[in-house]
Amino acid sequence: MNLEFKKDILFRELKQDILSGVFPPGYRFPPELVFAKQKGVSFQTMRSALGMLCAGGLIARIPGKGTFVLDAAGRDRTATGEKKLLLLFPEYDGEPGRSPLFDRELMLSVMNEAYLRGYKMIPGDQRRDAENLLERFQNGEFCGVIWDRLLPGKRDLVTVLRDHGVPQILVNRRIEGIPSVSCDYSAALRQAGRFLRSIGHQEILLIDSLPNRDVFRQREQTLREIFLYDESRDMSDCILSLPPSEPSNWYRIAKAWKQKPEVTAMIVASCHYPALQKFVEEMQLAIPRELSVVIWGESDLFNRKSPQSYTILTEPRNAVGVKAVEQLFHILNGEKAVAEESISLDGELILRKGCALPRTTKGKD
Q1: 332: DSSP letter
Q2: 3-state class of 360 per DSSP?
Q3: Which residues of 29-44 are buried (b: 16+ CB within 10 A; e: fewer)?
Q4: Any idea what DSSP says for residue 25?
Q5: pLDDT tens digits, one per residue of 325-359
Q6: Can you give the pLDDT at residue 363?
Q7: How many CB atoms neighbour CB 165 within 10 A?
Q8: What's the distance, CA 141 to chain centroid?
Q9: Confidence of residue 49 (pLDDT cuts 50, 70, 90)
């Protein structure tokens, strides 16, 4: 005997009403509890039937706004399997292979996780590919957006999309009311700093590109806590903030090194890897005998496949991508409480030969 569940019967009835025009494109269904009472079914039966309609591309659930009937174009796109998520980078030239390793890792993890859930990931550029996003979403062109390192000029657009119920996730940025997934930079720095302290290093130099004073203060406080520095100590001599890709950066590192002879270790942002290399060559330093080095982050110039033996502190871009997709799907499934969470992930410290006990200090045998 062929038994049919209530959810299947309700799904078939609602589908017929949509296709026949009883519920026209743009029609908003009543809240699920109210709709369930109107149809004489349980809340769970109603939710299951609506979930089947959503999976079939007949309706769209927009958190905070309601459940709407899609137009024919939106249905066709979903029916043919073209359910899309946008992944928008600060810069993207349309060629994945030319993207930096930092972007490629996130791109690959988002693409794989979306594929497992039946969606296609479309990468794009925040300046070039963020036009008419609200209209495109309402037309069913995509289901949600993941913003990587949101550009300041796009904050207003993101808040407008939020207010219209567009599912969005922020990576390494935060805006009230929008879930985010980030690397916990302070926790990552603690990993590297505590390791260096555990093998005897007491004075280190952090070399980074710090965008503003707030980030600088955060780094100062983290270093103070790691090495138990006194509150009266001026921490600015432990941090060297450099502009990216300046030819003279190696000289600035050398100058800081000479002014602080007690430094026996450095934590260096990967964007300054070329400057570090030139500094080591010019100063003829023995690594790690005279200086232990941790490279913070991976790039095309330096990564875990690099022949250089520096210890690596990585940002978990693969894990960030997986979590971003998971959060986006919590929103798409109406799990608002879960989706509003902001998640911070620790870094990964990969030990190599570039770190050792501080056997010597400058000026001493």
Answers
A1: H
A2: coil
A3: beebeebbeebebeee
A4: T
A5: 999 988 887 776 565 678 999 888 999 888 988 86
A6: 46
A7: 19
A8: 23
A9: confident
Q: How far apart are CA 302 and CA 298, in angstroms?
A: 6
CA atoms within 13 A on the CB side of 312: 18
Integer Cα distance of 164 and 141 in angstroms: 16
Q: Indicate the helix (H) or strand (E) that contains 218.
A: helix 213-227
Highest-scoring range by mean pLDDT, 23-32, 210-219, 277-286:
277-286
What is the rounded distance in angstroms from the CA atom of residue 118 to the CA atom of residue 65?
Answer: 24
Distances (CA, A) of 86 to 83, 107, 138, 292, 342: 10, 11, 14, 41, 20
Q: What is the predicted pLDDT for the residue at 180?
A: 94
Contacts 24+ apart (CB under 8 A), 221-228: 222/186, 222/189, 222/190, 222/193, 223/189, 223/193, 225/190, 226/189, 226/190, 226/193, 226/194, 226/197, 227/193, 227/197, 227/202, 227/203
DSSP state at residue 117: T
pLDDT at 339: 57
**Residue 161 in contact with residue 145, Cβ under 8 Å?**
yes
- Mean pLDDT of the region 116-139: 90
Nearest to 106 by CA among 159, 153, 149, 152: 149
Contact 207, 267 (CB under 8 A): yes
Cβ-proximal residues to 67 (8 Å cutoff; 6+ apart), any chain: 28, 29, 32, 50, 54, 59, 60, 61
User: What is the average per-residue pLDDT within 156-162?
Assistant: 94
Q: What is the pTM of this model?
A: 0.70
CA distances from residue 16 to 32, 34, 57, 73 in whole angstroms, order as listed:
19, 20, 14, 18
